User: Fold this.
Amino acid sequence: MVYRPLLIAFGVLVLAPLLGGLLTGFDRWLSARLQARVGPPLWQPFADLVKLWHKDRLTVNVVQILYANAYLLFVAAALAELALGHDLLMLLFTLAFGTISLVLGGFSVRSPYSRFGAQREIMQLLAYEPILVLMVVAIYLRTGSFLVSRVVVFPRPLLPSLPLIFLGYLLVVVIKLRKSPFDLATSLHHPHQELVKGILTDYSGPYLGIIELAHWYELVLLLGLAGLFWATSVWAAAGVALLVYLAAITVDNVSARVTWAWMLRFAWQAGLGLAAINVVWLYLWGAGMP
Amino acid sequence: MVILLLVAIPLAAGLFTLIGGAWTRYVAVGGAVLSLLSGAALVLAHGRLALDAATLLGGFRPGPLFGILDALLLAYIGLTGWRLRHLLLTLLALVQLAGILYLEGVPRPEAGRFVVDGLSAVMVLVVSVVGSLVALFSLPYMREYERHAQGTAGPRRFFAVLLAFLGLMNGLVLADDLHWVYFFWEATTLASFLLISHPQSGDAVPNAAYALTVNSLGGVAFVGALVLLAGRGEASLEQLAATPPAPGILVPLGLLLFAAFIKAAQFPFQRWLTAAMVAPTPVSALLHSSTMVKAAVYLVLRLAPAFRGTPLALAAAVYGAFSFFAGSATAIGQANGKKVLAYSTIANLGLIIACAGVGTTGALAAAILLVLFHAATKALLFLCVGTIEHGIGTRNIEEMEGVMWKMPVTTVLTVLAMLAMVVPPFGMLIGKWLAIESSVRTPLVLAFVVFGSAFTLVFWSKWIGRILTVSYHRKFRWERLPVLLRLPKLLLLLAVFSGSIGVAPLYNRLVRPVIVDQFDARGFVRTGGGGLTTGFGDFLPWPIFLVILGVLLLLLVMVGRLEPEDARPPYLCGENADQKPGTSFHTARDEVEIAETGNFYLESVFGEGMVRQWADPLALAILLLMVGFLR
Assistant:
């Protein structure tokens, strides 16, 4: 059927914000409990979004709206590519377009906070992008394809042969979800950020809502990618994704923010180092792996 | 006919500009453009063509003529070295002259023909289309330039060399006789010297002499290869490429590659290209990004079948990938816009060389796509930066803040061109995607390409961010530009966009013939669904274009609902000051301060000097290792 891909993409793009919002609510509830607070109810993120949507439409400049929308649509497009089984490398490029849109949104304002956030967001991109590409390369070396549609039908789970890559990916998730210790460019729901709200300082109302929505898509996308590590059954994939999320929340609650230079060094030394070792394994012994 | 249109008429038009004033220039450029474009169309319409020069010239064999031209050229370069007290340059010219005279003395075979095939068709297209547009752009640009600059070499020489260069460049990519290729190679080097030294003041002449000296080193290597090949009875580039690797053939091949690396300004020779940025912007757009330096990668791609599968190929792949990595790293630390463009050019040429070294059908396809898209995109960027420089009087990125208000059209064009360098669905990214997927079995190359790509994202997004900063509440001022300053840029942008959307037909028409020429097979890259597929990956540009369209539609809807009073000044570091909201604020000590912002350049890591400390020795080490592979 010709319309099948369209239906799948549509379904995923409608369901993803629901899932993303619930997961965010869960994060806020769990974090509150870990900090001995009561915390908001599970559906609080949806209430927040509705509230933001009904606020005054205030902007600092018109192009901000462009960047917020571009961020949302490109992250959503990357998620659609994942759902439709397209090329993983292409997916990373699309996601990077989304991130660059967010960066440009920060840059477009003549405010020190936004711009600092934007510079740091670039540094985050620099820190995790090579790890992500190496992850995709490792998946290719193991499965012989860059296509998600082929990776998910690979008969064996990937985690046993890509354990170090998986650790590197955990690091990427923590950076990408703006969790402590890497909540450098902006923090989502913590009150503690020395850059006020960093890259998002000058967004408000519906436009901040658009970015919030994009974050939900991004969350679902990142957890979906985590699921690829055990894609032999849906439940296993969901389990891995959930574990990754729990790990990120835990790290968030037990660590303090670091500087961007520290993050870059750590990501390249530890994250990339682990990923590179794993890739070398695959080059040397990939053919004989079970 | 093809040679007449593509080589002879531009050369003649160049000579013609020498005799008259402004009107002659317009006529000559117009004539050359028409001739180039019709020649390119003819090349595309035909398939493979082999044109014997003797038949074309009614029995006259032009072989000895090229020897005389070589000697004249080298004598001029040698004298230039003498005049500028650049004795090394004179020495290098003399060494080449000795080699050429030796070659005239010994019996040697002659190919004596021009060949049009897939690869030369790609190059002719780049030279003729980009060259024509840049030449048209130069007409109003140089008039403005001459008005501001003092003591230049004058517009006559400029246009004469520019037009002649286009003919020479086409000659280079069409010639099959190695001796002729050498002549055109050296002639383009000399054209580069004459154009870099056009301002005649400041650094221009020393920098031009430096470029000429470094490239003469490559010329010496080229002559060395010619001498060795003459001894083996090789004269035709096409035959040389088709010969399976034989003992001893790797030495001349290595020398030719060395010459190409220098002309492509790869590390550690990159400084001649960054020094060449003193030239007027059309020169940078034409010679130093889209055509002359592409001659270098043309030679590498042309010779790729000859060294495919040898250790030389692996060394070239690693070397090119390293230049991509080091060039992208250096670009992060530059605040001079033209230098960023130059380092990005060095990096992309390195990527193309790496693809040629990797040598699979997919890598070759990636290299051709990169040649095409880089030429159009980078030429466009240079033209834009040149326009901005004329508009605001600086090429410093930090001072480009607010250019959006002064020249909105140029800024939008610039930003689109920059985006076309780094994000999907544009051609450069299609090339990079294919390059990564094809080099996945060559770990070291892959590692350099992965890091280089991440660096690329950093320096482009920084620059885009800087020029797109728009402060609160100001009115656009609609810029006025002569049509010839605007039209070439629009056409280049159109080419980039349509090439990206129509990558499937582009691939079938231009890229596949090269692969069929070199491999006698279609390769694993296929077109399908409006994009490219490899069997283990796919790239579909059109859905991303739809997303971009969606973003723009949403913007229109949302802006339509916006009221003027919805605009607010940004949060600075305290309450906004009343006089200038959005730029100054009340500090904690209740003083009014102006908020200033700037970019990271991380010069302690990515400064030119810092990168050179490790990149030059490492690149040299790879080159020396390559020498070990020549046996």
About this structure: Chain A has one domain: 4-288. The two ends of chain A are 36 Å apart (CA to CA).
